[in-house]
Amino acid sequence: MKYLMLIYGNEEIWGSLPDGDLATLIGEVDAFTGALRASGELVDVQGLETHPRSVRIVADTPVVTDGPYLEAKEYVGSYFVVDVRDEQRALEIARAYPGLRFGTASGGLEIWPLMTGPDH
């Protein structure tokens, strides 16, 4: 099964980390994704640019606005996709994500099963 892992962050918190702590975290995330790549479970991993757009219908017309598009301090900063044997393994991977150690104030991670196969 394939799962999309959306990584949420709070720019104020990430921006306030001392350079050494941020470098350590980046190294830990690189090691984390390297281990998933080595196991064959990593399908894709990308950071996202900070200029999202939102398209919504207003008075029956699609309207494009600048992001962030939600009233929240957290935003999706990156994602990765894994292909694993079952949901339990996906949850295990999500729990091990290094950025979670900063607690709920820094964001979180969402796990989305991807539709795959001939029926989707």
What does this structure look like?
A hairpin with a 2-residue loop joins strand 3 (53-58) and strand 4. The mean pLDDT is 84. By secondary structure, this protein is an alpha+beta fold. The longest helix is centred in the N-terminal third of the chain and has 21 residues, at 19-39. It starts with a strand and ends in a 7-residue tail after the last strand. Helix content is 30%, strand content 37%. Strands 2-5-1-6 form a four-stranded antiparallel beta sheet. Strands 3-4 form a two-stranded antiparallel sheet. It has helices at residues 11-16, 19-39, 87-95; strands at residues 2-10, 42-47, 53-58, 61-66, 74-83, 107-113. It has three helices and six strands.
Give a short account of the largest sheet: 4 strands, antiparallel
The helix-strand sequence is EHHEEEEHE
As laid out across the biggest beta sheet, the strand order is 2-5-1-6
Global structural class: alpha+beta
Percentage beta strand: 35-45%
Distance between the termini: 13 Å
